[in-house]
Amino acid sequence: MLDNHRSIWPNFDEERPYAALVMGLLFIVFLSFVVKVVIDAKSYSFIGRAPETPNTITIVGEGKVIGAPDVAMVDLGLLTTSKKVSEAQADNTKKMNELIIRLQKSGINKEDIKSTQYYINPRYDYIEGRSVLAGYDVQQTLKVKIRDLDKVGLVLATAGEVGANQIGGLNSFI
Fold first, then answer.
1. pLDDT, tens digit (0-9, with 9 covering 90-100), for 39-66
2. Are residues 91 and 166 in the same domain?
3. Which of 26, 59, 70, 119 is least surrounded, with the fewest CB atoms within 10 Å of its CB?
4. Which residues of 128-160 are buried (b: 16+ CB within 10 A; e: fewer)?
5. What is the reported pTM?
């Protein structure tokens, strides 16, 4: 029974034309693969090299500009605490509105005063390992652009007078 079983591969001694055909096809496949590899290698020969750019001028330089700043930015914040959130908000709003009015009276444009942060957070006291609600913190921050550097001191003093207790981020630029 095994003698009648035929393999897909030819018996090369008995079927020479079929064997030659199979060998020829294998050679063609191998040759096609080699040709493709050579063509791909030639087409990617620019990898790792700078492209040729005829008629090109390349200039590299460094510059430095020096100037006196004429504008300042500062963050003016107000943190208010109270047992009730509504009281903390009312107190914070009253002081912040007063600050904005006084800044405008001192020559700061309305467009140069931006509200950047507003937070309401509970405040806890920790007594004998337990957290007990002690009240609320309301924090609001304004970013103020000062276009006249001679007014920086006035702006900071005004903020302190009104009750701003978080002042920082003073930067000057051109």
1. 877 776 666 666 676 777 788 999 888 8
2. yes
3. 59
4. eeeeeeeebbbbbbbbbebeeeebeebbbebbe
5. 0.61
